[in-house]
Amino acid sequence: MDYNGSRAFLSEEQLIYTITVPLSTSIILANAVIVLGIALNRQLHNTPNYFFLSLLVADLCTGVALPFIPLMGLNRELSFGSCMVAHVFPNFLFLAFLLNLVMVHYERYICIVDPLHYNNLWMHRNFPLALLAAWLPPLLYASLPSFGWNNWTENGTTCCSYRRVFPNAFIFLEVYGLVLPAMLVIAAMTGRVLLITRGQLRDICRLHRSVERGNRTSEQEHRLNLRYTRCVVAVSLTFLACWVPYLIYMHVCIAFLISETRWSSTMHIVLSCTGIGSMAVVPLVLGLANRQYTEPAHKILQKLRDR
């Protein structure tokens, strides 16, 4: 690598750390607060919260690996083993995070859609197997380039790039066979839950009117409708803020991969940091919205404030 190339690499690396280190630190600290809240509250020591705890661990690991994910788009001088670790391990953590997110949404979806059979759910009866299913398949798939499915050729160079590690078929299968279906499943389950909630809200309002024997909308109905509207707005904003940036990043990557043109490193860094970072915020939104998870942190802050 010549002087100009080395200088450009250092500037790109500095840009990556400038963007990712504050974001990564925030993700790690927020996950630690929620994990502490679950650990200190014995009432939360149950199977659903253990699944959520697994998601928080995966999210925390994603926060740790966040500064290394944009580096995958840069060309570095690394040996075969080091190059594989630098690409395979962050990819495994991201896939494990995504599968844990699907599992948590599915567990809560069944709780609302089919509450009578909720306790007999296979995930509750075989909790260790469910956790293994959330972590082992991502590890096996992410490790495939290490076992030969790669573009690495012994041409005398030690240049490490994602094009030499991940074949196009591997990237297409991961994006359109794993990541995108998982996101669609989560969106479908969330939409179904909102529809069920809307139907239950209408039934409650109808029963309330029959008890009150009046056709006018009461103040309580207004509060229920307002609360549901806030819920829909919160879900919509979460989708726009957390999922849309990653969707943009994913399809931009695929577009440049198909065209086989070299794109701006700065644009790649910004898109990858915002895309992966926004995805990692989803469990934090779910956790920080629950007062039971944040109650120990509030008590500690209250004691510090009183002192």
TrEMBL record:
InterPro entries: GPCR_Rhodpsn, GPCR_Rhodpsn_7TM, TAAR
A GO CC annotation given for this chain: plasma membrane
Entry keywords, A to Z: Cell membrane, G-protein coupled receptor, Membrane, Receptor, Transducer, Transmembrane, Transmembrane helix
Record's bilayer topology term: Multi-pass membrane protein
Gene3D superfamilies assigned to the protein according to its UniProt record, in alphabetical order: Rhodopsin 7-helix transmembrane proteins
Segments forming domain G-protein coupled receptors family 1 profile: 30-286
GO MF, one annotated term: G protein-coupled receptor activity
Compartments, record wording: Cell membrane
Domain of life: Eukaryota
Membrane-spanning ranges: 15-38, 50-72, 84-106, 127-149, 169-195, 231-257, 269-289
Protein name: G protein-coupled bile acid receptor 1
Organism: Tetraodon nigroviridis (Spotted green pufferfish)
